[in-house]
Design goal:
- This protein has 14 helices and nine strands.
- The chain is of the alpha/beta class.
- The chain has two domains: 14-252, Aldolase class I (TIM Barrel), CATH 3.20.20.70; 262-331, Up-down Bundle (Bacteriocin As-48, Chain A), CATH 1.20.225.
- It has an eight-stranded parallel β-barrel, surrounded by four helices.
- The longest helix is centred in the C-terminal third of the chain and has 18 residues, at 262-279.
């Protein structure tokens, strides 16, 4: 069978939807995967520190477990675990599998200070052997038909230990590895150093997924050329442009799809607002909506106008009325 190619010069890209605490969560996953383009999602991290967690914790961060671990549109959602104790992470992975997750993802990339102080996330980049041990324990603990994946960065302070980090993860027996092409210290500041992934892609026995500074189909094409990857994890770019996944898939398949227009985006914002009203205390329900508007304004100027109008609103009912009554005319 021939491989599909196009003006981008490669087979169609594989796209994964990343988690982002507080905004790229279950409701957002459902909306974005409905639009299309993604083959997999990952939950916000479940922090594992001292115990095997009860089922309610997994259901809270991954309500898709009640739907065979898939979004309403059928896209699988892997449960992501964060911690430093190999045996405890393995036991919690067993719980997630029992509850129905289609895969386990391990977080070694989160740069948050509170997480790193408790020996979670990116701080483990300082100890590649521990990363390998965690991956191996989790891989051995769950059935072979359940994929185990991990996410790393290039390093903590520098990328001098990058080879040791990715080799430890790959040699553990995991199924795929996502690499955020920056160190912990570099955080989210551009640029992402996609070229550092090229050696990994050439030598790896498992798929390598690129992450970082992927805002458009053009960015993904450049990342592919620099890294050799054909799988990409999208995060902030997907929040700025909810149809980014669909657009990327179309570009890589030689098709054109019309970008979503502001009235369609506003409908999603109202839907997100309504869902947050059920999920959050009334005092906090407006915060994720405002956070999303900050991302959306990078692609939709109407979002910047709307944010300026609602940034001081703290009551969710008032915000919803504003979205419906004043948001719609902005599209004119």
């Amino acid at each position: 069978m021939s491989t599909i190619t196009n003006e981008f010069g490669s087979p169609p890209a594989r796209l994964l939807l990343a988690p982002m605490e507080g905004v790229l969560e279950a409701v957002m996953r459902e909306m974005i995967t409905e639009i299309g383009g993604y083959e997999r999602c990952v939950t916000e991290f479940i922090r594992v520190s001292s115990t095997v967690l009860p089922s309610r914790v997994f259901y809270r961060l991954c309500p898709e477990l009640k739907n065979e671990g898939r979004t309403a549109s059928g896209i699988p959602v892997y449960v992501q675990l964060l911690g430093s104790d190999p045996a405890l992470l393995a036991e919690n992975a067993k719980v997630a599998v029992k509850l129905g997750t289609p895969g386990i993802d391990l977080n070694f990339g989160c740069p948050a200070k509170t997480v790193n102080k408790s020996r979670g996330g990116a701080t483990l980049l300082k100890t590649p052997d521990q990363i390998g041990l965690i991956c191996r324990n989790v891989r051995d603990a769950v059935p072979v038909n359940i994929p185990v994946t991990a996410k790393i960065r290039l390093g903590y302070d520098t990328d001098e230990c990058f080879d040791a980090i990715y080799q430890a993860a790959i040699s553990s027996g995991i199924d795929e590895l996502t690499i955020h092409a920056r160190t912990k210290v570099q955080g989210y500041r551009p640029p992402a150093h996609w070229y550092r992934l090229a050696k990994v892609c050439q030598s790896s026995s498992i798929p390598i997924i690129a992450n970082g500074e992927l805002w458009s189909p053009g960015d993904i094409a450049q990342c592919r050329d620099a890294s050799g990857c054909n799988a990409f994890m999208l995060a902030r770019g997907a929040l700025c442009r909810p149809d980014l996944g669909r657009s990327v898939k179309a570009e890589f398949e030689g098709r054109h799809v019309k970008p979503m227009e502001w009235p369609e985006i506003l409908e999603l914002i109202i839907r997100f607002m309504d869902a947050n009203g059920d999920r959050y205390d009334k005092r906090y329900a407006v915060n994720p909506v405002k956070q999303w508007l900050v991302y959306l304004k990078h692609y939709y100027p109407q979002a910047a106008q709307l944010f300026a109008q609602v940034k001081r609103i703290s009551d969710p009912d008032e915000l919803r009325l504003h979205l419906v009554a004043r948001g719609l005319p902005l599209a004119a």
